[in-house]
From TrEMBL:
Native organism: Elysia chlorotica
Biased segments, Basic and acidic residues type: 65-99
Protein name: Uncharacterized protein
An example Gene Ontology CC term for this record: cytoplasm
Database matches in SUPFAM superfamilies: Nucleotidyltransferase, PAP/OAS1 substrate-binding domain
Domain PAP-associated positions: 358-417
MF (Gene Ontology): metal ion binding; poly(A) RNA polymerase activity
Length: 456
């Protein structure tokens, strides 16, 4: 009854705030800092140094261009992060005509084509035999990663929606979650938001759907919203398009797990400079072969991210990534109030990977691991433990044993199977075929064009 009475007030609340035309007025940009999930207090900016001792600005700046390896400048040590070259004025003004490593990291990048050697700003670590694979991954990342301007548009939309929602839910909070905050977003990625109307659990099937339907009806009075639609699912969402920013939005209600896993995945994304380029390219490859769509019974982007993190934890030696939930259980406890979670990367994690594999080697290893090493019939991916579990070890929340089918990936907080959408044998067989054909083709050709020219 409380939920129904609140929903009845949505119309008046929306109309009142819509008249303020908050979205078209913009917001006061007092700084370039990126806010936390929902408050606006500063956290890691796109130029802040991420975790680890061997990272530089290549892993955190959203608007930089890549540099193909130039053999005339000397071999770059494998495993090092891409190094940005200083511009001419900086070289001339520094001692001995050179900049030290720290100042070169902080200098502003020049613009230029990512595929051009002359106008680029980075020397990317490569290894003999996989140079073309490495540079294809790096150049795709540089040209397609979400920019600061893209992020600002999403933050503006969030601020405008929050000013509207507070008319009906005075104490609500609006969290930006998903790839836009983890660092796994591209320029065309939509934005995921979580509307917290209460600190208590909300029945997703009944109450959350009721709230979203009421919001969808009320949004019709907002001039900047188009094509709103409620999608019924385990966690229902309201999809709509913001015609001012050109951003598509997926809104859910009180999906606390989404806030927690965004917090966790963002920290993994910035632990090592190779993580973000790899996941963006893996999603590109999976979309090309039509195996990156849960609605088509294949693999969701979230599950692909967990697959990569697991491979970097347990599928390669030495590991590229640690197990954060084992190293810092107090930081990632499911008992922590989500209002206390921050996207800041300032809390130092004492881990430096000894693995010096390049992007090309890691992508080939990822394909090989899920083609021929991982035992789908018995093993369950668990980034919570940093290893594989057997099916007998799964926590199986809600007693739903039917969710554990062909591809099993433990949700790191809830314990459910994030890949439960892969329940059709024919689709799973096609996924395996794509993985194996991609690995064999790329292993022979060492050119990513051969796995992106025709579907397998």
């Amino acid at each position: 009854m409380v939920v129904r009475s609140v929903c009845c007030n949505i119309y008046s609340g929306f109309i009142m705030h819509q008249r303020t035309n908050a979205h078209r007025q913009g917001f006061n940009r007092r700084s370039n800092e990126i806010p936390t999930f929902e408050t606006g207090s500063p956290t890691a900016s796109t130029s802040q140094r991420p975790y680890g001792r061997d990272h530089n600005s290549s892993a955190r700046n959203h608007s930089q261009n890549g540099r193909e390896y130039d053999h005339s400048r000397g071999q770059k040590r494998r495993g090092e992060s891409p190094e940005r070259l200083p511009d001419k004025r900086a070289r001339d003004s520094s001692e001995d005509g050179k900049l030290n490593r720290r100042s070169s990291q902080q200098s502003s990048p020049r613009t230029g084509s990512p595929s051009s050697v002359v106008n680029n700003n980075y020397i990317v670590p490569v290894s003999r035999g996989t140079e073309k694979i490495t540079m294809a991954i790096w150049n795709y990342f540089i040209s397609h990663q979400m920019s600061e301007e893209d992020l600002k548009k999403k933050l503006l939309l969030r601020k405008s929606l929050l000013s509207i929602f507070t008319g009906a839910f005075p104490n609500c909070r609006l969290f930006m979650v998903g790839s836009s905050m983890t660092g796994f977003a591209t320029k065309t990625s939509d934005v995921d938001m979580c509307l917290m109307v209460t600190q208590d659990e909300v029945d997703q099937k009944r109450d959350a759907t009721l709230i979203l339907n009421s919001i969808a009806r009320a949004l019709k009075s907002c001039s900047f919203v188009r094509h709103s639609q409620v999608i019924r699912a385990k966690v229902p969402i309201l999809k709509f398009y913001d015609q001012v920013s050109g951003v598509e939005c997926d809104l859910n209600v009180n999906n606390i797990i989404g806030i927690r896993n965004t917090h966790l995945l963002r920290h993994y994304a910035y632990m090592d400079w190779r993580v973000r380029p790899l996941i963006l390219f893996i999603k590109k490859w999976a979309r090309f072969h039509d195996i990156n769509d849960a609605s088509k019974k294949s693999i969701s982007s979230y599950s692909l991210s967990l697959m990569l993190i697991h491979y970097l934890q347990a599928g390669i030696k030495p590991p590229v990534l640690p197990c954060l939930q084992q190293m810092k259980p107090e930081m990632y406890s499911p008992k922590i109030d989500v209002r206390r979670l921050s996207l800041s990367l300032q809390d130092k994690i004492d881990f430096t990977s000894q693995n010096q594999a390049t992007l090309g080697e890691l992508f080939l290893g990822f394909l090989n691991y899920y083609s021929f090493v991982f035992a789908y019939n018995n093993e369950v991916i668990s980034i919570r433990l940093g290893k594989c579990m057997s099916r007998a070890e799964v926590r199986n929340p809600g007693g739903d044993s039917m969710q554990w089918k062909f591809l099993n990936i433990e949700e790191p907080f809830e314990g459910s199977n994030t890949a439960r959408s892969v329940y059709d044998l024919h689709v799973f067989t096609r996924i395996l075929r794509v993985l194996r054909a991609s690995y064999k083709t790329l292993e022979n050709s060492r050119d990513t064009e051969t796995i992106l020219s025709r579907p397998f």
